[in-house]
Design a protein that fits this description.
This protein is of the alpha/beta class and about 180 residues long. It has seven helices and five strands, in the order E-H-E-H-H-E-H-E-H-H-E-H. The protein has a five-stranded parallel sheet, sandwiched between helices. The radius of gyration is 15 Å and the shape is globular.
Length: about 180
């Protein structure tokens, strides 16, 4: 039975690496945000709009406790998931946690392209986005750093580098 749980800031590549890793290891892949959307029949943005962040975090907590009980999976968590309730301790108890670590500059460049679909950053200018990432990453880093494994993913700009990162995760986990 395997559970590999990817954490890190939004835009770090958790879904991209998670999909490739699950394919490589022949495991099911679950993106926690997608799971929440399918179970709640609403987008994360709609949940944020109707329930606020606190309401979303409660839903996320409950859905996390479902997904993290599945066997033979790779789970990609939302960027804030480890930072609320006892989620980081729970994740470490459930499986092999891997923090995909990227610099604020790299995260800013990744997220500039997708601001409209991410409720926490929608409507921010590029400079506001960079400042927001720096401030929130500083708050989240103490949670992320409790992952069992840390992988620098600053350069995920092509398929070759994504595959190299998957290779590194496999090595960290003793999978190859």
């Amino acid at each position: 039975m395997k559970r590999i749980i990817l954490i890190g800031y939004m835009g770090a590549g958790k879904t991209t690496i998670g999909k490739a890793l699950s394919k490589r290891l022949n495991l099911m892949f679950y993106d926690l945000d997608w799971y929440i959307e399918s179970r709640m029949h609403k987008t994360v943005a709609e949940i944020f709009a109707s329930e606020g962040e606190e309401g979303f975090r409660e839903i996320e907590y409950n859905m996390l406790h479902e997904v993290a009980e599945f066997e033979n999976v790779v789970v990609s968590c939302g960027g804030g998931t480890p930072c609320f309730f006892d989620n980081m301790d729970y994740l470490n108890a459930q499986g092999a946690t891997v923090y995909l670590k990227a610099s604020p500059e790299v995260l800013t460049s990744h997220l500039k392209m997708g601001k409209v679909v991410r409720p926490l950053i929608a409507g921010k200018s590029d400079e506001e986005l960079r400042q927001f990432i720096m401030e929130s990453l500083a708050k989240r880093e103490p949670y992320y750093s409790h992952a069992r494994h840390i992988l620098d993913v600053n350069l995920l700009d092509c398929l070759k580098k994504i595959n190299e990162s998957v290779d590194e995760v496999c090595k960290l986990l003793g999978e190859g």
